[in-house]
Design goal:
Serine Threonine Protein Phosphatase 5, Tetratricopeptide repeat; Neuraminidase; Immunoglobulin-like; 4 domains; five-stranded antiparallel beta sheet; 11 helices
Length: about 625
């Protein structure tokens, strides 16, 4: 709990100020005996029996303030804020002077129900008490700051209409054991979580979405689960990798390290320690992979940070290893603890926990947005009731941008922590995305080809991400909405692939399949250069064409023996002679650029074909657009 209400509220004040209304010496003796029995039960954690005995005491003496105060403390321990508040208020009604020292725990429990304005008033009354000692004053002033934040947040964000209604994942997922740390694939069909089996051994379980709900969860196949404790896992968006935390493993470098497992035909592979520089002799935990699997975020208490635990990022290297981790800096990390990072499928929104940023007290959930300069900024508290006066743990958000998953021990729990889902408030949602899957394969043999698929933002020309396919050529990419993209694939021995996709007007949560055939480098092989652009009736290359032409230069440098022809084509609009001349000049412009980049002229030919070789119907704009093209053909190898 963020703030534990003690049963005997003695740590804040030096003593009680007794008043005329209530005299403890006149309490019914039998009531006192029952009360003391109740205290014994409460101290042993038997809260239900303690409440029964104290209620019997109150039946004998309904002015017994100490019994009401202790009941309030017990309900506070149980996080039953409403009943806690009722009992504090009963004691205040009987004798406010005697009970006024309990205004702070009363205020905290008011905040537990979201009554922050009323909680602020109560803590101000507490701080007005003249005989407070210094620890009491500091505790009150801390709570005052959190309540002022909550009141301001509610006013500025207008959260009153938000309905927070977490749904238990059900009996197929949750059991009498503890279930926590959920993780889902980008299609939302696979749920992975940690279960503490029989109260001590942590293992990974998975469940599949079916028309009737989640399937019966089962231990993950393969060699990933062991007699050691595996936890705090993150499954990659494509469902092929699992990064998790292993503590006190024999091969560990520190108390807790990060481990890697991949999905194979026989199940999940034997975990491998990620090793240095990701792991150290210190504590590393709470991993989160970016959707393209190129960045690994995690929390660590290694030296050199801003506080206790900081969030770091390590980047995937060409050799398959990981780079020296970088601290996310003071935009994210504080003098307190930051943990549980989760990078959404949009690759722009980071969720994490912090107790060093102002919030509701203790560990709150925050989000940050990646800016154009790759810095994380616009940090925002997720607000009440997502954040409470309790410590919040890990939270993930599905690719739809609105469904969040977390673990909680709410009233309908099957046993302790269960997996729940709820709908995020709109202002704390990530960017809307769409996702694309497909396969890279040899055009002649149809065999899958492991390759890197690069995505370019056509408007800016900036490479947004590069995702590696699996060993059979399959890939999955999530993309922010509102952009048009070019898909590029380069693989030695093949002509490069480049094609534009106008996704800027596509609906969110759309799914697309884009299979990518690669043409082997051989005589008469050809490829359309889809990203060569000219103005209407012009043959000067537009600047956005250069990125694609540089790939042609790379192809020629990688294959010094080949000769190519660049062919220009137009649609049938206008005079045939004009189209022929225009296409010829465009082809020559491409060749001129290649020569300017050091390619020998004798390796290059150009030819204008006008509208004589259409590949689509010229009666439609879509067909005419396809016919206006620049084509590369290999003449000899």
């Amino acid at each position: 709990m963020k703030y534990i209400i003690t049963l005997f509220y003695c740590f804040l004040v030096s003593g009680f100020c007794f008043a005329q209304k209530y005299n403890p010496g006149k309490v019914n003796k039998k009531a006192i005996n029952l009360y003391n029995l109740g205290l014994d039960e409460a101290q042993n954690g038997n809260f239900k029996e303690a409440l029964r005995l104290i209620d019997q005491a109150l039946q004998l003496d309904n002015t017994y303030i100490d019994a009401y105060l202790t009941k309030a403390g017990i309900y506070g321990q149980m996080k039953d804020y409403a009943n806690c508040i009722v009992n504090y208020e009963k004691s205040f009604d009987i004798d406010l002077e005697y009970s006024k020292d309990y205004k702070l725990p009363y205020a905290i429990n008011l905040a537990g129900t979201g009554q922050f304005q009323k909680a602020l008033a109560a803590v101000n009354e507490f701080l007005a008490t003249s005989e407070l000692n210094e620890p009491s004053r500091r505790a009150g002033e801390y709570r005052k700051r959190t309540f002022e934040f909550a009141v301001r947040y509610e006013r500025e964000q207008n959260t009153k209409d938000y309905v927070f209604a977490p749904q238990n994942a059900g009996d197929s997922v949750n059991t009498t054991d503890l279930e926590y740390y959920p993780s889902v694939t980008v299609d939302g069909n696979t749920l992975v979580f940690t279960r503490r089996v029989k109260g001590h051994n942590e293992d990974f379980f998975e469940s599949e979405r079916t028309p009737g709900g989640w399937s019966k969860a089962k231990g993950m196949d393969g060699d990933i689960n062991s007699n050691f404790n595996e936890g705090a896992q993150n499954i990659s968006q494509d469902g092929e990798w699992l990064i998790f935390t292993g503590c006190n493993f024999p091969e560990g470098l520190g108390s807790c390290d990060l481990y890697f497992s991949s999905k194979t035909k026989k199940g999940w592979s034997t975990p491998e320690n990620l090793g240095e520089p990701v792991n150290t002799e210190f504590w590393e935990s709470a991993p989160s992979l970016s959707p393209d699997k190129r960045e690994l975020y995690f929390s660590s208490n290694r030296p050199g940070g801003f506080g206790g635990k900081d969030i770091y990022v390590s980047r995937r290297l060409p050799n398959g290893g990981w780079s020296e981790p970088e601290n996310l800096g003071p935009q994210i990390n504080t003098a307190g603890d930051e943990s549980c990072p989760f990078v959404h499928a949009d690759n722009q929104t980071l969720y994490f926990t912090s107790n060093g940023l102002l919030g509701y007290g203790g560990d709150d959930l925050f989000l940050a947005k990646r800016q154009a300069n790759d810095q994380w900024d616009s940090v925002k508290n997720l607000g009440y009731p997502i954040n409470t006066i309790e410590n919040e743990g890990s939270l993930i958000v599905a690719s739809d941008g609105k469904t969040a998953y977390y673990a909680s021990d709410r009233s309908d729990t099957r046993g302790g922590l269960d997996i729940y889902s709820f709908e995020l408030r709109e202002d704390v949602r990530p960017s809307k995305t769409l996702w694309v899957s497909g396969k890279v394969f040899d055009k002649k043999t149809t065999e899958g080809l492991p390759s890197a698929v690069e995505l370019i933002d056509i408007a800016s020309g900036k490479a947004l991400l590069k995702v590696q396919t699996d060993e059979t050529g399959n890939y999955l990419i999530t993309l922010p909405l509102g952009k048009d993209y070019a898909f590029n694939v380069n693989r030695k021995g093949y002509l490069f692939y480049s094609r534009n996709f106008p996704f800027s007007q596509k609906a969110p949560d759309s799914t697309y399949v884009i299979n990518i055939p690669l043409q082997p480098v051989e005589a008469n092989a050809s490829v359309i250069l889809n990203n060569i652009f000219f103005d209407v009736n012009k043959y000067e290359l537009k600047p956005e064409s250069l990125a694609e032409l540089d790939k042609v230069v790379q192809l020629l440098n990688d294959n010094p023996g080949i000769r190519i022809r660049i062919s220009g084509h137009t649609d049938n609009t206008g005079k045939a002679a004009d189209n022929l001349k225009l296409s010829d000049n465009r082809a020559k412009s491409v060749v001129a650029y290649l020569v300017s980049k050091g390619v020998q002229a004798e390796r290059l030919q150009s030819k204008g074909l006008g509208s004589s070789v259409p590949i689509a119907d010229n009666t439609t704009e879509e067909g005419r657009t396809q016919n206006r093209r620049t084509e590369l053909t290999i003449l000899s190898k």
